[in-house]
Design brief:
Layout (H helix, E strand, L loop, with lengths): L16 H14 L12 H21 L3 E8 L2 E12 L4 E2 L5 E5 L2 H14 L31 H5 L26 H7 L17 H15 L3 H13 L5 E2 L14 E4 L2 E4 L9 H4 L1 E4 H11 L6 H4 L4 H7 L4 E6 L2 E5 L4 E3 L4 E8 L2 E7 L5 E7 L1 E3 L7 H21 L1
Parallel strand pairs: 6-15
Antiparallel strand pairs: 1-2, 1-14, 2-3, 4-8, 5-8, 6-7, 9-10, 10-11, 11-12, 12-13, 13-14
Length: 408
């Protein structure tokens, strides 16, 4: 449920630093450590969650994270959540249940499901060469064979051999775009792009590979990517706060700012547009809408229309390992079709990081339980937090200490 309109905000820049700290303390005290919805947590799960929340708050305060949210999900509903700090510190807006975060690469899971939708409707095969839908890729240098060997399945599993970054060059100039804004910019880089290994032979995370999937979707359907996902995913799943790129006016008061910490002070980055890379990382939404997404993925969509977004067999296909990755914090890690797999723990998920937003989702397809985390702060110099390491630490605690209690 959306929170009521906020009263006139405090302007914290006019308040002494000591008073700001007091306001932050009051905001944290006012925010409930857990907020129950739907089925209550069992005793073991509640104890594990309470211990985690205490450590979570201590870690975020120690690292100087401006704001964040951590939530547990069962069958598509948030059953416990912990808010931390500020959505917009300059305005005195604390993080709450209505706060909208940017989910960055978690967008890739929506792109993957959309491609499987087209497959299930007979509009493509995962074995199709991507060159059929993105002919500009014919200019890419492939020392291992023809570009026709690179398939949609390779792109979905990050096994096509494309580089990681969408922009491989960064001169550090303020006028340079931080992501390609137009398709022509990616096309111009294709003669200077190479395939790094035989397609399908191993894993290499690739942002442009996912952009090529978004381009494929547009070529087949005639819709722009954002319109297709709105019509065929967001709407049937009831994800009313989900949108791509810059924030709609009616949601602006709920959008979290994102901050770089420089000299121990948070510097806002502002709202932003991911341009032509939207299918790779343009998603924004509330935590509750991400819970709906996990609910759909685990077979608990809220309506019959929602359950029709993608058949269960196709979702289960996405969670079969296509290529192994390595040993990580959560044990053995593999890549499915658009999702990371953690077979030692029975979990599936994805992470995201863009500008100063960091996020993760984790879920157990068998039991319908999961977790969501999001933070709006990154280090701009040595005084700022190492948010990626912090996210991995919290995600591991959730996966090893809390979710097993919910999986019972």
């Amino acid at each position: 449920m959306r929170s009521p309109p906020r009263s006139r905000p405090l302007h914290l820049r006019t308040i002494p630093a000591s008073a700001r700290h007091l306001l932050l303390l009051l905001a944290l005290v006012a925010a409930p450590a857990t907020e129950a919805r739907g089925q209550a947590l069992g005793e073991d799960a509640r104890e594990a969650w309470t211990a985690l929340v205490a450590d979570y708050r201590e870690l975020l305060d120690a690292e100087g994270v401006v704001g964040g949210t951590l939530a547990l999900v069962r069958e598509g509903e948030v059953v416990a959540r912990a808010h931390h700090g500020w959505a917009v510190v300059e305005e005195g807006w604390p993080v709450d249940a209505a706060t909208l975060f940017h989910w960055a690469s978690i967008t890739k899971t929506f792109t993957a499901v959309s491609i499987l939708q087209l497959r299930d409707r007979g509009l493509l095969s995962l074995e199709d060469p991507v060159l059929r839908y993105v002919p500009e890729l014919g200019a890419v240098h492939n020392p291992f064979g023809p570009m026709e060997d690179v398939t949609l399945r390779h792109l979905l599993s990050h096994a096509a051999g494309f580089r990681s970054s969408t922009f491989p060059w960064d001169g550090g100039e303020a006028w340079q775009p931080w992501e390609p804004t137009e398709w022509a910019q990616l096309v111009a880089m294709m003669p200077y792009t190479r395939i790094d290994f035989p397609p399908g032979s191993r894993f290499q995370y690739s942002n442009p590979g996912i952009v090529f999937l978004g381009r494929t979707l547009e070529a087949i359907t005639g819709d722009v990517f954002e319109a297709y996902v709105e019509k065929n995913v967001f709407r049937p799943l009831g994800m009313a706060t989900a949108y791509f790129d810059t924030t709609p006016w009616h949601l602006e008061e709920h959008r979290a700012q994102n901050y770089r910490v420089v000299g121990n002070e948070p510097v806002p980055n502002g709202d932003f547009n991911t341009g032509v890379t939207v299918s790779n990382g343009g998603l924004n939404a509330s935590v509750d809408d991400l819970a709906r997404w996990i609910g759909f993925l685990t077979g608990h969509a809220v309506s019959e229309v929602g359950r029709q977004v993608l058949r269960r067999g196709s979702l289960e296909e996405m969670w079969r390992e296509a290529v192994p990755i390595r040993e990580m914090e959560l044990g053995r890690e593999g890549m499915g079709l658009g999702f990371f797999l953690y077979p030692d723990l029975g979990l599936v998920g994805h992470t995201g990081s863009q500008r100063s937003f960091f996020s993760f989702i984790l879920f157990d397809p068998a039991t319908g339980v999961g977790a969501i985390g999001a933070f709006n702060t990154a280090g701009g110099d040595e005084t700022g937090p190492d948010t990626r390491a912090l996210l991995n630490r919290i995600r591991e605690r959730v996966a090893r200490d809390v979710l097993p209690m919910l999986q019972r």
